[in-house]
């Protein structure tokens, strides 16, 4: 049994998170329920920041809020001294409602709408990561309309892509995101941004993948970018002041996942960037990164109540819970794997093997295949680990199932940060037929 962060088994044999008994949490708030270990989020954020500060380099650590967004999460990230990576008008609006500093907000996305850019410019956000020429024109028009100037990064595809443990380098990466580094698009975009009186070009942004367990890909991306910096300096009179290397740092979901400490990714980035900056006789650019999953992923646990069972002798023993793909789409979407325990009997030995089924009317609504557990009973509480990233943020109302609540747990205290939806919420926007 692998326990993350502050999780432990208490004297009652119950799973405890943040000093709080999860069985008591399930009784008070019902299930499904997302529980976040705030102390673990603090620890992860500190690892990234301390690595930069130890090396004494300029930096920003921006929370990639697509992993999990709510007002309280933005406020916590602000307490931790983080910047904010948003990818939609909805995420930006939530950040505005959280009253975080707008100059620390960076707006991503491959198809930002005119309305979203208008909201961003009016709010006075810190940076737009420009993804394409159409967006550059929209941003220019928006800045002109509001008589404002916007700091921008150009998202580039450096020809480096991470596939879990493997990395490939190609001449032109096939991606819906960004300007291609090898076919002249980046040069054209730099010229256009530099010529605009309403854009202040800070540098470039690169993101090579997700759930990455090694530093090699980030090193390759830095090397690729620096191959072009001398060209930009001599031909375009442009030297990036900011290099944003994105996120994608891995976490442990199941046995066999072996991520590095957050600081190790940072150390390797800094090391190679210092080498290339010195060789190019230029000041070290400010380094930005965007951890999301690696900040909140293993800090989140989902609690479910066990319901029905179906035992097919010599085939499979199904155990159904009161949630599923409506609160965790990842297993159905791309076969994500998880571990879990019975939270109310966490000290008991696993004697059986169950496949955990969700309650949605889909045969593909399976959360975990072949999970070792004690002999499970109706009303047991199942805890599924590492659901803090892309769990609640991908939650949906399929089958008209209300979305679960979210609580933060730390030092024995609990705060409800997202309320449970009810049936009235489901029909709130519905309109009757007009006769």
Task: Describe it.
- This protein is an alpha/beta fold and 435 residues long.
- It folds into two domains: 8-37 and 298-421, Lyase, Ornithine Decarboxylase, Chain A, domain 1 (Beta Barrel), CATH 2.40.37.10; 38-296, Alanine racemase (TIM Barrel, Alpha-Beta Barrel), CATH 3.20.20.10.
- The chain is 30% helix and 26% strand.
- The protein has helices spanning 22-29, 38-55, 71-79, 89-97, 114-123, 133-146, 185-195, 216-236, 262-279, 293-296, 330-334, 423-427; strands at residues 8-9, 15-17, 20-21, 33-37, 59-64, 83-86, 105-107, 127-130, 150-157, 160-163, 166-169, 179-180, 199-205, 242-244, 286-289, 300-312, 316-321, 340-342, 352-357, 366-373, 381-385, 406-410, 413-418.
- The strands form four sheets. Strands 4, 16, 17, 18, 19, 20, 21, 22 and 23 form a nine-stranded mixed sheet that branches. Strands 5-6-7-8-9-13-14-15 form an eight-stranded parallel beta barrel, surrounded by five helices. It has a three-stranded antiparallel sheet with strand order 1-2-3.
- β16 (300-312) and β17 (316-321) form a beta hairpin.
- α4 packs parallel to α5 (114-123) and α5 packs across α6.
